[in-house]
Design brief:
Largest sheet: 2 strands, parallel
Number of strands: 2
Order of helices and strands: HHEHHEH
Shape: elongated
Helix content: 40-55%
Strand order of the largest sheet: 1-2
């Protein structure tokens, strides 16, 4: 991956595109979901690479301020999405 994924940058662009309180919470959540979906992809090596312990990959933590990879498994992708929602103060 050439550059890191910056959650704060994605959020800043969202607010530039939709200034003020134009977006509802659901619309913010949808915007972030779509934008992260463009940047992240499922790590297929999780199932195909038998040399790697699956639990090590599954429980690998993500540094939200330094996302330098774009391949993750479901738990990591959902953690990244949840952190983005927290940063826009999404009430869930």
């Amino acid at each position: 991956m050439d550059k890191k994924i910056d959650l704060d940058e994605i959020i800043r662009k969202m607010y530039e595109k939709f200034p003020g309180d134009i977006l509802s919470e659901v619309e913010k959540a949808r915007y972030l979901y779509i934008e992260l979906g463009k940047l992240l992809k499922y790590d297929i090596d999780y199932y195909t690479d038998y040399d790697v312990k699956m639990l090590d990959v599954y429980y690998k933590s993500v540094d939200f301020d330094n996302i330098t990879e774009n391949e993750y498994v479901c738990t990591q992708i959902s953690s990244i999405y949840a952190e983005a929602l927290r940063r826009v103060r999404y009430r869930c």
